[in-house]
Structure formats: C-alpha cells, structure tokens
Design goal:
The protein is an alpha/beta fold and about 200 residues long. It has four helices and nine strands. The protein has two domains: about 90 residues, FAD/NAD(P)-binding domain; about 80 residues, 2-Layer Sandwich (Alpha-Beta Plaits).
C-alpha cells in the first residue's frame, strides 16, 4: 500500500457487501481499510444456497472467512472494531474501538512508539504499514493534528503501542524503524513499555 497518499476507501462493515467491495477495490490496487464489528447477519446463516459457485450451499461463517481471506490476499487491511464517530475537521477524522477482548499473547513484547512531524497525508498509514510488514501487531493507536503555537505549522503526532514478537531482534528492528522515520522526516522514539 502506498503511504504517500491517503486511504482510497474506508469500508465500514465486514459482511458480504462490505467484503465484496473490499475485494473489488483491492484488486484495482487501491488502499482499502475494512473496519468490522464481527456482527454480520451472514454469520447467523447455517447454510445458504444463494451464493454462486456453492450449489450445495455454504455456512455463513465459512463464507465470511473465505471473503476476508480473499480481500486480504489482494491487500485490503481488515481490523476488528466499531466506528463510533466520523467527523470532518480540516480533513477527516475516524474514531473506532475494539468490540471484544483481545486474546493475551505472552510471546509479544509491548513497546511504545511516539512520532511527531510536520503534517502531511499518509503518515499514519505508512506507520501502520511499516509494522504490518514486519509482522508486528498494533495494540493501540492515538493520533492527532494540531497547529504549533509558536510558528503556526500544521503538525502530526501519534502514540502507538505495538506487540513485538519475542524472537525478533529489537536492535535491528529499531534501526530499521529509525531509518524509515529518517526517510519520511519523522521525529520518533521506540521504547519498551515500562508498566
């Protein structure tokens, strides 16, 4: 996904309609994000025979699983959550939250990443994409834009908590991350969470 531009499409809902949209758009090499609460009515269907290619029918849960895999195969990002509010504030603001408890993963080391930079489109997406490509999960993320009081410059800030696999070489990851940030002219730190 190209982080030099904003997201091409946000799909709210991971039912058959939302996932079909994600599949088609991702196949056109667009940057797609699906936010899914996991409450699609299709999951309730014990067996549907209304889907082409499945003359004997398919369980709703299996159909959703296959569609998610296909969308992700073509590059769509899917996150579990609920969109609680959409706003336009000199751009676009998205607020979402996780809909269920996350399973504990004791093999992940919690690290905190803080980024500050001049605001430009795509920074947040590039950060998420960097960690995704490394196989690192994003546990929490908060970002905002503000106007610097001293100069009036448009600024961006993000605080990201990530789960780094315990078998990953931390120093090499930190070097790669700092090189990534230098390339984008981002001021950043990556430290272990201490509490």
């Amino acid at each position: 996904m190209n982080g030099d531009k904003p997201l091409d499409c946000l799909v709210i809902g991971g039912g058959p309609a939302g996932l079909t949209a994600a599949i088609y758009l991702a196949r056109f090499h667009l940057d797609i994000l699906v936010i899914d609460e996991g409450k699609s009515r299709a999951g309730w269907i014990p067996c549907t025979r209304n889907v082409s290619g499945f003359p004997d029918g398919i369980k709703g849960t299996e159909l959703l699983e296959r569609m998610r895999e296909q969308a992700q195969k073509y590059g769509a990002k899917i996150i579990d959550g609920t969109v609680s509010r959409l706003e336009r504030e000199e751009g676009f603001k998205l607020v979402w939250y996780r809909t269920g408890p996350k399973a504990l993963q004791s093999n992940l080391l919690p690290y905190v990443v803080e980024v500050v930079a001049a605001d430009k489109p795509g920074i947040l997406f590039q950060l998420a994409d960097f960690f995704d490509k490394q196989g690192i999960t994003i546990e929490s993320l908060h970002s905002s834009r503000y106007r610097a009081m001293q100069t009036g410059a448009e600024m961006f800030t993000a605080q990201v908590t990530v789960g780094i696999p315990s078998n990953m070489h931390i120093a090499a990851l930190r070097d790669d991350f700092m090189e990534f940030c230098d390339h984008l002219n981002l001021d950043a730190i990556m430290d272990p969470m201490k509490f």
